[in-house]
Amino acid sequence: MAQMFIFGLGYTAGRIADALKARGWQVNATGSAGNVDFGDSEAVGAALGRASHVLSSVPPDRKAGIDPVLENYREALSGQWIGYLSSTGVYGDQKGAWVDESAPTGTGRRSARSEADAQWMELGARVFRLPGIYGPGRSALDRVREGKARRIDMPDQVFSRIHVEDIVSGVLAAIDSHAPAGAYNLGDDLPASSNAVTEEACRLLGVEPPPLETLEEANLSEMARGFYSENRRVANGKAKRVLGWEPKYPTYKEGLASLI
Questions:
Q1: Who wins on pLDDT, 107 or 185?
Q2: How crowded is residue 17: how many other Cβ atoms within 10 Å of its Cβ?
Q3: For FRET with 139, which of 23, 132, 197, 250 sits at 20 to 30 Å CA-CA?
């Protein structure tokens, strides 16, 4: 029986675990929903020794600049299929240009993530670089319903995004196709502004969009302002060619409609 060990059983990794269990896999994991204590090195080591596949969704510590999984368990990662859920933030600001996996990394605000991404690549991982993730309970629809949706007046700003189910299918495709180690961008086919997504959510819910605000008027948190400081379109062609993957939700319109 194939066995997957997951570091960090969160929103996305939990769905990957469910999909693997439905296939008959045994899954062990750390995290609040997992069954292994991350700090119990003996238990983690034993589980890694049994695992045929390992996936980490644990982000690096931004302040310390280290990846806790690599810091504690790098030596136990040998011989397994390895996957890592990274971020397209490693590409930094590209002023709206398209980027693929050949683009340089480490120029953006997420230096710790870029370093972790590079270290997992060196280990021979399949590194899945993910843009903004949305899905059940975590989408523009929820922000509109909760009165938290904003429209920022930045006409040229675009982002890529991906439905959580398409991350699951991308990771499974990498396993099934015995894909070589390396980076894979998993994003939808239509980068778009956050405003366009908010407006579509409002249309589906039958409410008026929130008013346009300047970045200053919005009084965003430092993290949110950082989000708006970068502008890029993420190409997904490699994942389609090499993994044989196609997003079920090629644009935010299909994705949001599925969540109504």
A1: 185
A2: 22
A3: 23
102: DSSP letter:
T
Whole-angstrom Cα Rg for the chain: 19
Q: Please report where in the chains the tokens 């099934």 appear, as a residue.
A: 176
76: which 2 tokens? 């136990």
Record the tokens describing residue 133, joined without a space: 């993730």
Cα atoms found within 13 Å of the Cα of residue 121, Cβ hemisphere only: 15
pLDDT in tens, 105-139: 987 666 899 999 999 999 999 999 999 999 999 99
Give the integer Cα–Cα distance in Å for 234 and 96: 9
Instruction: Record the tokens describing residue 14, joined without a space.
Output: 């939990």
Who contacts 259 (Cβ-Cβ below 8 Å, separation ≥6)? 135, 136, 139, 141
| Whole-angstrom distance, CA of residue 188 vs CA of residue 131 | 9
Concatenating the DSSP letter of every residue in 196-243 gives HHHHHHHHHHT-PPPPEE-HHHHT--HHHHHHHT---EE--HHHHHHH
Each residue's pLDDT tens digit, 138-172: 999 999 999 999 999 998 899 999 999 999 999 99
Question: How far is residue 122 from each of residues 74, 85, 243, 255, measured CA to CA in Å?
Answer: 11, 15, 20, 34
Judge if pTM exceeds 0.90. yes
Helix (H) or strand (E) holding 251: none
pLDDT at 87 over 90: yes
State residue 108's pLDDT score: 66
